[in-house]
């Protein structure tokens, strides 16, 4: 007997919630379009394939929930959680390593901030009691300097998920963690002196940038050089 196709499984799972095939197809088309865009971006920037596990790990639970909510609204459905349950039920089995842990949980301590190699990251602060804050875009240089300062003061620790490039780190007495997800498509021009983005030059004493952002085509005088 032939195995059911992924589309048939999707329709069967949606029927359990009273959702018609055309409606679930509209919702899933939003998720599929985002995934195609991210896969193409990953392929262009890193020359490899973005597997479903790596893609989901990069978004995180909260990010994928937001995407499912957007998909539900596009399809005229009020509940993104239902879309998330349907998609999860028919998703491919997770990639595994020798100890059978899903690939996104394969993390190791960072011994050198240079291991965070991406040009840009989407950074959120996630607190076990208060949830997570809105994410902000960071240059890779800012993230590496933050990791270096936190570990140098022995007030923080960091780990890297090798398969996804996600960095998780703590800083000071904060009970939550910072989660830095690679976002190469969000990279901006960097300062020729310190490498950080223009928006990261505010409060330079705190964020490690030089006092003034300098573009590549601006004259760099001896007085302005580091």
What report would you give on this structure?
- With 226 residues, the protein is an alpha+beta fold.
- It has helices at 6-15, 21-46, 52-74, 80-90, 140-152, 204-207; strands at 107-109, 120-127, 131-132, 136-139, 158-161, 167-169, 177-182.
- Strands 1, 2, 3, 4, 5, 6 and 7 form a 7-stranded antiparallel beta sheet that branches.
- A hairpin with a 7-residue loop joins strand 6 and strand 7 (177-182).
- Helix 1 crosses helix 4 (80-90).
- The radius of gyration is 21 Å and the shape is elongated.
- The protein starts with 5 loop residues before the first helix and ends in a 19-residue tail after the last helix.
Distance from N terminus to C terminus (CA atoms, Å) equals: 71 Å
Average pLDDT, rounded to a whole number, is 79
Question: Could you say which structural class the secondary elements and strand pairing correspond to?
Answer: alpha+beta
Element order: H for helix, E for strand: HHHHEEEEHEEEH
Largest sheet: 7 strands, antiparallel
Regions with little confidence, pLDDT below 50 for 5+ residues: 95-106, 222-226
Helix content: 25-40%
* Rg measurement, Å: 21 Å
Number of helical runs?
A: 6
Instruction: Tell me the fraction of residues in β-strands, as a range.
Output: 5-15%
The number of strands is 7
Question: Per the principal axes of the C-alpha atoms, what is the gross shape?
Answer: elongated
